[in-house]
Amino acid sequence: MSRRLLAAVLAVGALLMIFPFVWTFVTSITAGGDVLTTPRLIPEEAGLDGYRKLFEVLPFWRITVNSLVLAVVSTALLLITSSTAAYAFARLDFPGKNVVFVAYLATLMIPMQVLVVPLFIEVRAFDLVDTYASLIVPTIASAFGVFLLRQSVAVLPRELDEAAFVDGAGHIRIFLRITLPLIRPALVTYGLFAFMSSWNAFLWPLVVIRSREFMTLPLGLASLSGEYTVQWNAIMAGSVVSIVPILALYAVAQQHIVQSVAQAGLK
């Protein structure tokens, strides 16, 4: 009986979590006038008017490509910087290592809202406002990524490194040939988090982007809701487009995420 009750509770929780996505999709294919009437899970008049309107009022392909390029480049750079720093903190000995690591982690307590003004002043000083560089450069380092990957590197047996040193390998070869393959689940998990963070970023792009040429998906959807407040089907169509890549990426990386969580629970 307890297992049935637990299954029922989990089923209700799953439905509550899925319902907003279902409602978003249903609204995106509902005729504009019907959205403002009695809400229905099965619309009386379904169509793709919302998607057509979305691509008519915005250069949506360009905006989507901007977000995709930004997310891919930012994620790749974050994986490089975070993995190399994690290896250094976990395997190399240098004066003040623990102090530097604690100070680096302390930056996690500083909210992004506090950093917006000094970052903008710095970006403006280098004349990078309204460019791809202004979106990418401030995101190439992450204290959370270093912490997450360092923990994965730290649990690896040091005997692997010692055996590699005996064979004549250096730190670079050990990092590329031994460490990275063994922490692949953690890399995939953090890569997914980094991609989602960049894909959904709104505050920083809102500050540094001025033209539609460099506009990202969250900014495009925000401008759509501000200018066409009654076109809910178009707004929800944009939301569906923004959700699909994240769902696809999670479906591909799900196995690695589960493996990463399982390894984190093993001593």
TrEMBL record:
GO terms (BP aspect): transmembrane transport
Superkingdom to which the source organism belongs: Bacteria
Protein localization: Cell membrane
Topology with respect to the bilayer: Multi-pass membrane protein
Parts of the chain that traverse the membrane: 68-89, 101-120, 132-149, 187-209, 229-253
Main location: membrane
Keywords, comma-separated and alphabetical: Cell membrane, Membrane, Transmembrane, Transmembrane helix, Transport
Record-annotated ABC transmembrane type-1 domain positions: 64-253
Keyword Membrane: yes
Cellular-component GO terms for this entry: plasma membrane
PANTHER family per record: ABC TRANSPORTER PERMEASE PROTEIN MG189-RELATED, ABC TRANSPORTER PERMEASE PROTEIN MG189-RELATED-RELATED
Family from the record: Belongs to the binding-protein-dependent transport system permease family.
Name of this chain's protein: Sugar ABC transporter permease
Origin species: Dactylosporangium sucinum
